[in-house]
């Protein structure tokens, strides 16, 4: 396990790029003042890793907050994602250009394929995956992105991608929390040098209703969110907590003055299904 001392400590991706071990998520954060204020608050609280996506519809507000924060671009790690309608070689390149324009950036640090098998394209999945990844590799070579990866990919989707890939994905961002550790996906990621990122590290809020977590939180005099984020880090994951409340944004950075015991880690590991499971990408209707 990486020694955890502060928010800006980094993991090394498989291409050598450094990525801060905790990111600030913006999924379900509405565009406009809410997204702007929350990202600005996160940067003020010390986050240097911001995660957004074309599908979130808030790239412009995220970009404006980055520009107004006063934080140097080279000190930030910014992720965005390719949406399902934009799979394919030319469409992928055009989609990144649009995202960069909205973000007001010359490059992003990480560009991800958001979902592996869009509903409208399932009869042509393998070829589209190959064409999309080829475009991603060329964007990486052109330095418009510093690393490329995927999101919501299961082993079978990664197997398809790796048939033609020249660059192994650096990251697989998945629904990863005590309720669904996605053990088979994490094991595959580890075997291939792919970092597991958690886009719902707090189980979209559902974990807050689990009494056992409250008991553990009381023991450490921490919040349930802090306990679960610390659990994520001690498992070697990269959590992306999301909040629009300044006090919680700040609280979610306070993860480095305690360590969960092996017994408590095991207890949390055993909470499968208590707050929902990941969607099967082959079954979603988008």
UniProtKB/TrEMBL annotation:
Please give the Pfam families that the UniProt record associates with this protein.
Answer: Aldo_ket_red
From which residue to which does any coiled coil extend? none
- Which InterPro entries does UniProt cross-reference here? AKR, Aldo/ket_reductase_CS, NAD(P)_OxRdtase_dom_sf, NADP_OxRdtase_dom
Tell me which residues make up the NADP-dependent oxidoreductase domain. Answer: 22-270
What CDD domains does the entry give?
A: AKR_AKR1-5-like
UniProt keyword list: NADP, Oxidoreductase
What SUPFAM superfamilies does its record include? NAD(P)-linked oxidoreductase (SSF51430)
Keyword match NADP: yes
Output the PANTHER family linked to this UniProt entry.
2,5-DIKETO-D-GLUCONIC ACID REDUCTASE, NADP-DEPENDENT OXIDOREDUCTASE DOMAIN-CONTAINING PROTEIN
Name the family the entry cites: Belongs to the aldo/keto reductase family.
> What name is this protein filed under?
Aldo/keto reductase
Organism expressing this protein natively: Lactiplantibacillus nangangensis
**Lineage of origin:** Bacteria, Bacillati, Bacillota, Bacilli, Lactobacillales
